[in-house]
Amino acid sequence: MKQLLNTLRRFRRAERGNVTVEFALVFPVFILILTSSIEMGVITIRQTLLERGLDIA
Q: How many whole angstroms separate alpha carbon 45 and alpha carbon 50?
C-alpha cells in the first residue's frame, strides 16, 4: 500500500507528457475549425455558381 502511495505521489509531481496532453485537447478543435472553414468555402462556391447559372438562364 505504501509503495502504491509513493508511486502515485511521484506520478502527480512528474511533468513529463504535459505537452502531449495539451496537444490531445487542442488538436481536435483546430481540426474542426480547419475542416469547417474548408466546408464553408465549398458551400459558398457552390452557391455562387448556382446563382450565376440562374442569372445566365
A: 9
Render 17-55 in DSSP notation, one character per residue: THHHHHHHHHHHHHHHHHHHHHHHHHHHHHHHHHHHHHH
User: What is the DSSP secondary structure assignment for residue 42, as one 8-state letter?
Assistant: H
Q: Phi-psi bin for 17: left (phi > 0), alpha (psi -120 to 50), beta?
A: left
Q: What is the pTM of this model?
A: 0.61
Distance CA 26, CA 32 (A): 10
- Give the pLDDT of residue 20: 86
Q: Which residue has the cell 509503495?
A: 3
